[in-house]
Task: structure prediction
Amino acid sequence: EDDLVEALVRSRLAAFEPRSDVMRFAHAMVRESLRRSAREGGRDAALASAVTDALSARFAMGDHGVAEALAHHARRAQRPKEALSAILVAARGALTDGRSPEVIPMLELAASLRDAAGLPPDCPEECEEAVIRAGALNRLGELDAAGGAASVALRIASERGYRALEAEALHELGYTDYHRGKKDLARSHLDAAAAALGEVGKTRELARCLGVRGDLAHSMGHVEAARRDFTRASALSEEIGDRAGVASSLLGLALPGVGGADESADAARLIFEELGHPSGACTAYNTLAERARADGRLADAEALYREARRWAQRGGVTQHEHICGLNLAITMLHQGRYEEAFVETELGARMSALLGQRLVAYMFEVVAAAV
Result:
């Protein structure tokens, strides 16, 4: 493909502008021409297999950026096991990067590849799919569905002895419990998850689990416990070079009573914006907005909440979106804008209840009663 595009440039049929629409069009046309020729010549599977071999070499060397492309080419080459391994890595990458809406279609592909590969029920791949699905659904705010997926993963992992996946399933279940208002149950699941993740050496997942447990502890008034968890999560994220994890820990350390510095929240915001991480950027803006509201800067708070909601909508993270709407309604209430606050609470209460976001729905009902 690159050789043919280079020939087009040499013949002046295309100008060399790497990021231009012309070059993208040239690549697409050449790619489609090669695929059509391969199909017509009965060489489609052979071409796909050759591309799969090339991408597999890069993937084996740690270039996980090619995982999704590798999965699709391996599927065309009728190599379902390779495709399945790659698409699960791609799905985890999308989840880590905050691209939760992209994860579910990847998992649908994973399920079809698992069938094509003839893998047995309750295999590690099925369990991993359920763990990743629970994580994506949690971030999208679909808590009932997330709880179901996490429970499936936990059952398979505990019965089959998949210790690392069991630890991740406990973490996702704890996250779901927390956001459904079941705080004691959430604490039990998160404690078990943290211990297990430490045992199996899942550092990134442990840092995230500690962040969730720290947030839970803060919501229960256990400030010192929250500070310990956020501090340890920050150290673990620094250790593995996880900038998003560091930013999340900074937000935890910026909570009132824990640290509470605007500088920490703003530093986290900058990292998340640079990474293009929707849920993280939303949380950072929401934290800054809460500080502005506490200081009586209501106009600033409203602007920050609206920016937070825009980030949530961009990433399809509905629970974050509804929390921003709740905070907007409270800000409007403080300003005497009762009709606008009522509209926010009515819509937010219905949508959050529909998605199983019971804690947020309850908070909307409390604000609606005040309105």
Observations:
- Residues 12-16 have pLDDT under 50 and may be disordered.
- The CA atoms of residues 274 and 281 lie 9 Å apart.
- Residues 291-371 form one domain.
- The first helix runs from residue 2 to 10.
